[in-house]
Amino acid sequence: MDAKIIGNLKIGDEVFLSGIIYTCRDQAHKRMVETLAMKGVLPFDIRGQVIYYCGPTRAPQGRVIGSCGPTTSNRMDEFVEPLLEAGLKGMVGKGSRSEGVIKAIRKHKAVYFLTFAGCGALLSRYVKKATCVAYKDLGPEGILRLEVEDFPLIVAVDCQGGSIYG
Amino acid sequence: MRTVQAKEVTEKVAELCIKANLELRGDVLSALKKAYRQENKAQARRIIKAIIENARVACRLHLAICQDTGLAIVFAQVSQDVRVKGDLITAIQKGVEQGYKKGYLRNSIVKDPIARGVSGFGPAVVHIELVKGDRLHLTVLPKGFGSENKSALKMFNPTAEIEKIKEFIVDTVRQAGPDACPPYVVGVGIGGTADYASFLAKKALLRRIGFKASRDDLGRLEEELLEEINRLGIGPMGLGGKTTALAVNIETYPTHIAGMPVAVNISCHALRSASISL
Q1: Do B66 and A141 touch (CB under 8 A)?
Q2: Rounded to an integer, what distance in angstroms lies between the CA atom of residue B222 and that of residue B234?
Q3: Cα A52–chain centre separation
Q4: Is A23 exposed, middle or buried (0-12, 13-18, 19+ CB in 10 A)?
Q5: Is B181 on the interface with A (CB under 8 A)?
Q6: Which residue of A has its CA nearest to B61?
Q7: Among A29, A31, A97, A108, which one carries the catalytic annotation?
């Protein structure tokens, strides 16, 4: 996501994302932030990328992915700042964020989106490809690279630090 | 004395795990449809429509309604005149493992809460109750943790006014805010002990939406709480609207002269459960 696109997004905007997003939740966040603290290399180039707080169900035969809705974002709040510093530009999840995260989003000119919460079956239709790129040992918490098409999003925190939850 | 084979218990529990996770309860679907008709905010309507559409897609594609297929909670009511041939608990746990595996449900359970480690399908939390009759009644309630994390327990003084209790219940929903997939179903347990009130709050989620508490005063309390909670305006996905909760269900039990335990267990809109009588 480049700065121009991010700059145009305002809270409440309903948009569709086509491209690459990476699933990443609790334990993967912890590992990535530990890696950064030890000056290590992240399992994917995070610069300009979007993270999706999601741990999908396994894909039944003939399907790309299982049910794949968002998990509660604010459990990841304590890990956000270092990832933004490393170049992360977007996050997708559900629910509110802390004051600290909103400030960090403004500082790093990033964006936080919501997607339909509790609608994992519906959202699976917008995923065209899913590949595990790291932390396979974490099972549903491993990092998946998802190719998505017209994935529905609502801008919840924009790069000016405005929040849809006030 | 009727006999039920442990093997049959395993098979049925496996089926219930899949059914509960893939097919949204009829009463929940009806409540969502009613909420859709009542909402007048366009965005709230779009979100409820997506939730209803999600239930349809889940059923058609044989996918879990929600990727958080929960920690399976199994309520087994064992009648005194039923004999289970084999080990009941083992049979239930095996059923959960098999159902979650076969239904492509998520392996969300870590064996150790502190060390965490590799996640698996079970074990379930199992509640066994001995009742009269000659049936074995099984219910599976897969509980997602986005909403479970918002549970609350408060030990009130026995002299506490009902208004204070209502305030606590409404405040628990306010605290959950947009995070736990509203519109919610709110389970409340009042009485017993700290643990038993929590159990009642969970059990309250099993009562079909639209069925009021058996006692009139509790039914009125449920209605008042539902109105107050919906006045919070949290709405679907927390983006505002009339529907913050679909229902409030209260269960009570006698308690000690020195106390009044009150527990709240919130369910997301994907309130899932399935039952069978053997």
Answers
A1: no
A2: 18
A3: 3
A4: buried
A5: yes
A6: A121
A7: A29
pLDDT in tens, B124-174: 999 999 999 989 999 999 999 999 999 999 999 999 999 999 999 999 999
Beta strands B109-112 and B116-120: pairing type?
antiparallel
What does the pLDDT look like over A86-131, one tens digit per residue? 999 999 999 999 999 999 999 999 999 999 999 999 999 999 999 9
Token code pair at residue A164: 């849809």
Kindly give, in sequence order, each residue whose CB lies less than 8 Å from that of residue B67, ignoring residues fewer than 6 positions away: A54, A55, A56, A57, A66, A67, A68, A69, A71, A120, A140, B106
DSSP H helices, chain B, are: 6-22, 26-38, 42-61, 88-102, 145-148, 162-176, 194-204, 216-230
Amino acid in position A107 = K
Ordered structural domains, chain A, with CATH: 14-36+43-134+143-157 (3.20.130.10)
B209 reaches A (C-beta below 8 A): no
Residue A118's closest chain B neighbor by CA? Answer: B66
Asked if the Cβ–Cβ distance from A57 to B239 is below 8 Å, we say no
Angle between helix A99-107 and A77-85 (nearest 10): 10
> Could you confirm whether A29 is annotated as catalytic?
yes
Q: Could B119 and A66 be called an inter-chain contact, meaning their C-beta atoms sit closer than 8 Å?
A: no
The answer, for B51 touching chain A at a CB cutoff of 8 Å, is yes
Rounded to the nearest angstrom, the minimum Cα separation between B250 and chain A is: 24
Cα torsion B47, B49, B54, B57 to 10°: value is: -150
Closest CA of chain A from B68, distance in Å: 8
